[in-house]
Amino acid sequence: MGYWKSKVLPKIKKVFEKNTAKKAEAAEACNTFDQSKDEINKEFEEKKVDLQPKVLEIYEACSVEIKGLVKEPKEAGIKKSSVAIHKLLEELSKIEFPGSKTVTEASTKYGAGLVSGPIIFVLEKVSTFVPIEEVVKEDEPKKEEEQEQVTTKVEKEIVIEEDKIQEEQPTTSTTTIAPATEEPPKAAKVVEALEKTVKEVEQFYSTPATTAANKGSSSILKEKDRDKLLLNTPLHDSSQKEQIASKRMQELMRHFASIFRQITQHKWAWPFLEPVDVEGLNLLDYYEVIEKPMDFGTIKTKMEAKDGNGYKNVREIYADVRLVFKNAMKYNDEKDDVHVMAKTLLEKFEEKWLQLLPKVAEEEKKREEEEAKALLEMRITREVKYANMAKDTSTKLYEIDIQLRELKERVVQKCRRMSTEEKRKLGSALTRLSPEDISKALEIVAENNPSFQATAQEVDLDIDAQSEYTLWRLKVFVKEALKVQGNNASNNNVTNNNKDDNKKNNSKRRREICDALAKSTVKRTKKLSNL
């Protein structure tokens, strides 16, 4: 019992006190963040346009779970996926996303669970860049109806005006196709969603970055190798790699700090410990000679900085230490004591730096390889996404094409037989079409008659040999074409003399069509007389 009171209980209390203090600090950090929200919002609005492509690229590289948290941030989800969330915050910090740097530091220090409020605030800002996905659900009972509605264009082409038919055949019982109704909202949404997807895929594959990347060496990766690479490198593994790289850099910083300490403790280092007292020493031309003043005190402060303004790597510190000595040697004559002291210390510093340089070069090479691999993984993730989108869209379009064919077959079955008189009038109307409209009419015939050559020099058009579907389409087309032709003739009374040659060619083409129709009419007359 005495051991429990003297040893165990104090440790338990210490743990609880530590957690309580940590929670209090985290709460204070959250309050401070809340007070700065107005300033963050202002910065966000200023950078919104520039941030959009960068944020979308980071978002697309996230897992499905993290994408869900971005759209609907929840405290429980943030705690569960704290490592992945921290990785996302680090990526946002790299692009200077407003507020992300402060939240990342708080997450590192206290854990994502204790600063969920600021994290949710940042995620909500990120969600404003995420496009809203339209999910279209089709009801099975209405599937056939929607298929017909999506393809109303085909039906519209064969619509028959009942009044006209009754005028031509007053005693014949006819069955006509009801005029197609307008597409309902659901069908319109299906079409709109497909168009949006197609445009998005086209835009991705037409961007210069994607085109250049596809031509690069990385594009030779086989699809199975890409999938394997993605499966073996999830988001949390990337976060762990970043932490490992950060530890390696900290170790290099520690080695360099030891070198820096040896140099600053040298007996000749005292002139360089503080900034040059330009006014006290009456150095009027100092800032004219020295563009960037530097001293050991400033370097030390920057090395110990925790607010993100410190050195990012060892080479930055190395450059500033050399700058201290170079400035002294540049401003002071070679025989001056300060010049000699600076030159001596620089030589000692370079000797020690050469001992550390192999490790620095090795770390830089690793960093470069890791960054290249991360970019490749991100690009492959996007490529896989858009490849799947293209595949799904192609499948949907193929299904719609099948539906159109089925609808076309049903429409053909519903078409009533055109009478001999109606065929005669149709043939007569075809001869009154303009050359352009005649070509279009021949194309309609060719669509359902592969052996018919609409562009041949001579055409033999047998109306009796055409399907009812083709005849009704021709009837609707001819009626609309003649109507437009009549309106144009009444509005345009001035002719162009430069089009005489075209008129001759068009007249020749029209005569050929008329001759073909006349032959067809003669054939029909002979058939009727034989009956």
TrEMBL record:
It holds the Pfam family Bromodomain. GO terms for cellular component: plasma membrane. Residues 264-339 form the Bromo domain. InterPro entries: Bromodomain, Bromodomain-like_sf, DREPP, NET_dom, NET_sf. Residues 166-185, 488-509 are annotated as: Disordered. Residues 168-181, 488-497 have a biased composition (Low complexity). Gene3D superfamilies: 1.20.1270.220, Bromodomain-like (1.20.920.10). Keywords: Bromodomain, Transcription, Transcription regulation. Residues 408-489 form the NET domain. This is Transcription factor GTE1. It comes from Cannabis sativa.
